[in-house]
Amino acid sequence: MLKRSALLLVLPLALLGAVPVSAAVKASEIIQGAIDGFVRPAYAGLHEHAESLTKAMHKLCEAPSQEELDAARSEFSATVYAWSSAEIIGFGPIKDNNRLERMLFWPDRKGIGLKQVQAVLANKDSTATDPALLAGKSVAMQGLGALEFVLYGDGADALTGRDDPYRCAYGAAIAGNIETMTGDVNDAWNKSNGFAALWANPGPQNPLYRDGNEAVTELVGVFINELEMVRDVRLKGFFGGKPDADKPKQAIYWRSQNTANSLAGNLSGIDALFQASKLGDALPADARWMAESIHIQLINGIATAKSIQGPVDKALADPALRDKLDHFALITSSLSTLIGTRLTAEFGLTAGFSSLDGD
């Protein structure tokens, strides 16, 4: 599991105000902007995609064909992109009831999750076709990774016919489970007295955020942690410095060819969150260029990722696409420096932490 270590903040008057009361108000404005402008729309959109995915799976099960399989796969890819954008907010309601791991069990370096999914398909466990019962099973059996194997893994061609109805029923249950989880998270973010209220209203009596510093710490940590995760875990997990160091089957969503799609979604979420929070507006006037530079580089990274199409192994074998993967890595490194060093210095932050420290 990724660990979010402490971020020590010494925020200047320009950001949080001259006295404790105004400091809390300014922090609240930044956090509320992030919640209303990104978090709530992102999870609402994810839930809508999950609903469409469930409907597509049920249509496939009712009338199996290549056309319906293609439609379900298309909805899966759209859901992956929506989740990749929203998943950067990996705290709050998504952490309750192991939802984060249940949504996406990855990486699975020892293949434990894969073996569990294969065992379910082989044994045709009837309880795994009920979304409610599936929710209580292993996290590896009930999320996007499991559904990807159902739709794209060995034996997926059977979904175009009626010879293996169990596989489709299991896939529909996974989709239904994802729909329920995303709906619950969406509802939780919209509760008037829920997590959003705690994050946006720091104070001495707040059990999670005692002051504006701690609230803004959570936000700044998203940008730094997620850029590091995208580069060092998602990208470098399969992209070696040389071809003989590549591990294409360690790439996230490699079966469905959604690896680059998910990387684009991650950066899209980071950009949308940065814009919604208006954190850049709190920079001193002579440093406002950083906000525009961050936005431009994120857009460049998104476009680069989206231009990498097809199977991961073929992309790795194509010099032109390898160059794009290199370019993507350089962009994320540049952004890490710009946000984790330059922007934090302008705000007087001490950004000496890593999301990948520890277990």
Structure, described:
It is a single chain. The chain has 359 residues and is mainly α. The chain has two domains: 8-36 and 200-350, no CATH class; 39-189, Up-down Bundle (A middle domain of Talin 1). 62% of the residues lie in helices and 1% in strands. The chain contains 14 helices and two strands, in the order βααααααααααααααβ. It has helices at residues 13-16, 20-62, 66-86, 99-103, 112-123, 131-134, 144-152, 165-189, 195-200, 212-235, 259-277, 289-306, 312-317, 319-346, and strands at residues 8-9, 349-350. It has a two-stranded antiparallel ribbon with strand order 1-2. Helix 2 runs antiparallel to helix 3 (66-86) and helix 3 packs parallel to helix 11. The termini are close together. The relative contact order is 0.15. Mean pLDDT is 91; it is low at 1-14, 16-23 and 351-359.
Tally of strands: 2
Rg, Å, rounded: 21 Å
Return the average pLDDT rounded to an integer. Answer: 91
Through-space gap between termini: 6 Å
Low-pLDDT ranges = 1-14, 16-23, 351-359
**Please, how many domains?**
2
State the secondary-structure class.
Answer: mainly alpha
> Helix and strand string, N-terminal first?
EHHHHHHHHHHHHHHE
β-sheet strand percentage:
under 5%
Q: What is the number of helical segments per DSSP (H or I, 4+ residues)?
A: 14
Q: What fraction, in percent, of the residue positions are helical?
A: 55-70%
The rough form would be described as globular
